[in-house]
Amino acid sequence: MDEEAIYDFPGIEAADENGLLAVGGNLSFATLMNAYKKGIFPWYNPGEIIQWFSPDPRFVLFPGKIKISHSMRNVLNKHLFKFTVDKAFPHVIKNCRKAKRDDDPGTWISDEIEKAYNNLFEKGFAHSGEAWQNNELVGGLYGVLIGKVFFGESMFAKKSNASKFAFINWVEILKKNGIELIDCQVYTQHLESLGAEFISREEFNGLLKKSIE
């Protein structure tokens, strides 16, 4: 298959109980944009065939409902980190790839994923939020922004609270720009503590259609 060809998808109701909808295709710009607009995202381990998911329920955060703990407010008030946007996207995704996670011995960010999202960044659809300390990149996140929806992909932290700092600052920017929905895709305790919640896939895709149009 031509790697630049657009890969189409079955209806999301065809996804299995784990949210797996389709296998194969490619990570071209056109395919990824088509997928996100339909509430579908790639998620698979390096060396595996590309797998596409549309889970039910969906884990999301409404920007106006973000929770900031008292301890995190103290971190923000102490100005321990500096926040920037899109200043180090390739470095953010590379650090997300290297990040050690308690619940995952490996990483799902392969060479082809890294290349595909750097391409989305160059085309203006992927973005990163960065946390710096003493001119060192110590935390950050990246994802895809289409219409009024931000699709979060991954985050990392080299210093305690650095990823939360980046996330909170990024959400504040999204709120100011009228972004209505943040897709967190699947559950993490980290994001739940910041206010993320489950909604049905049907509700998610209804919001998606409205917010992207």
For the structure shown, list the relevant keywords.
33% helix, alpha+beta, seven-stranded mixed beta sheet, single chain, 213 residues, 7 helices
- How many beta-strand elements? 10
Going across the major beta sheet, what is the strand order?
5-6-7-8-9-4-10
Mean pLDDT rating: 93
Structural class based on helices, strands and sheet pairing = alpha+beta
Structure write-up:
The protein has 213 residues and is of the alpha+beta class. It is built from 7 helices and 10 strands. It has helices spanning 29-37, 70-78, 89-98, 111-122, 162-176, 189-192, 201-212, and strands spanning 20-23, 41-42, 51-53, 58-61, 82-85, 126-133, 136-146, 149-157, 181-185, 197-199. A 7-stranded mixed sheet has the order 5-6-7-8-9-4-10, sandwiched between helices. Strands 1-3-2 form a 3-stranded antiparallel sheet, covered by helices on one side. A hairpin with an 8-residue loop joins strand 2 (41-42) and strand 3. Helix 3 runs antiparallel to helix 4 (111-122). The radius of gyration is 17 Å and the shape is globular. The protein starts with 19 loop residues before the first strand and ends with a helix. The mean pLDDT is 93.
